[in-house]
Amino acid sequence: MAGPGDVEKLTTHTAEGFTFLSMLFGYDPASKRYGKLNLTTWVEYLGKWGLSRALFVTMLFVGMLAALSIEVPDLGTYSSQWLVGTSPIWLPIALLVGAWKVWMWYVRVYFISKQKHILLEMKIPREITRSPRAMELALTNLWTSSGETTLFHRWWRGGVRAYYSFELASFGGQVHFYIWTRESDRNIVESIVYAQYPEVELIEVEDYASKFRYDPEKHMAFSTDYRLDPRSDAFPIKTYLDYELDKDPKEEYKIDPLAYVLEFLSSIKPNEQIWVQIILTLNKDKRRKKGTLQTEPLWESLVHEEVEKIRETASLNPRKKDAPDDDPRKFGFPKPTWAEQEQMKSMERHLGKYPFSVGMRAIYIGDKSRFHSPTYVGMRWLWRPFANPQYLNQLRPVRWSNTFDYPWQDFHRMRYKLHTRRFIDAFRRRSWFYTPWITPHNIMTAEAIASLWHPPSSSVTAPGIVRIPATKAEPPPNLPM
Length: 481
Known about the structure:
Elements: H1 4-25, E1 27-28, E2 33-34, H2 39-48, H3 53-71, H4 75-114, E3 117-125, H5 132-140, H6 151-155, E4 164-171, E5 174-182, H7 186-196, E6 201-205, H8 208-211, E7 219-229, H9 258-266, E8 273-282, E9 286-288, E10 295-297, H10 298-313, H11 338-351, E11 355-367, H12 373-380, E12 394-398, H13 414-429, E13 442-445, H14 446-452, E14 467-468
Parallel strand pairs: 3-14
Antiparallel strand pairs: 1-2, 3-5, 3-6, 4-5, 4-8, 7-11, 7-12, 8-11, 9-10, 11-13
């Protein structure tokens, strides 16, 4: 009969065994790494060498089925009989789910196609007296769920919430600022912009993306999306507050990180174009609370979760969650480093702002004979001045042309041509959150977006910025007739 000591030894060895297995096959949340024998480790490793992850997983699955078929010769018969026998249970559910998805896809495409959109160009005067905080306030007023008011409107008519696109476009070095919106929302957009920047002008213009005709025989293109990396969306990028632009110093002392972006866009050659797109809509993403069927706002829970992780990591003594409220051990004894303090300060500051779902993309187009690789490299890291990968976040180039690093990834440039055609179509449609081009989005606050897109002051001297010579004003009412 085993004694208490034997049971304790068995428990210890069992725990050690599970720890060893988890190191090989499992996932360590602290280091954010998978075990050496975990399938995800191999998939990520092959992806770094430019090999198709989907092809690897498919071949692995087919190989496992072939091995099972050898061991169990009647596997196909048994599987067919099981599928047919259980079809009264799973088939109606699958048909209903599939029909629902097809219906929602159809009504949303129909609704979006019936909306008329316009492109407004922002004409910028020589003098801008407001800081990017004014743009933040303007963006905050776009945090609205108009377009999807009721279940009937969403599920029967296909209504979707309004989304907007704030764009930068450089045509041979001439930089333009654009706002793309529904025609029905034009008055709203003009009101919030003029309220903060009365000196600018908004003029309806022809859509440059739809007007341009991309010819694969004549042009080359490099396209990319931007994703927050290397941390979760709870960690912000550097914003205008980090550069103290909210304090409105003298023009000669202002350091605007957008200046580099505009200077780079101004430096391209006459036969080149760069289009940049920041698409946004309000964020109401939810996720399920752990251990319950209730949901909670994704953005808030992400921030609280990351702050709590930092507090626990920085604690001198482990936190005792079940202690009474008056016990200091309930919250531990955190002693964070300077970087950890900055992380918590930045996340909690942004928690008080309105969160948006944000999609960002850019494309560089030039003639084949003069396509300049340093230009698209610069476009990939266009947002470097806003990056803080050491302890916050950065906007990293992903997808599209970034996936073609090795010759075997694109045979005869077939995927490049397909990706370029699809990217330009998504750009023209300003499609990100809904069909036909649904893409994973970032969560960013109005503060971060205003830092990336705002009318530059006179301290930004990029030569390509198209400025109007003077601000228009009404004549005084007491002039003699």
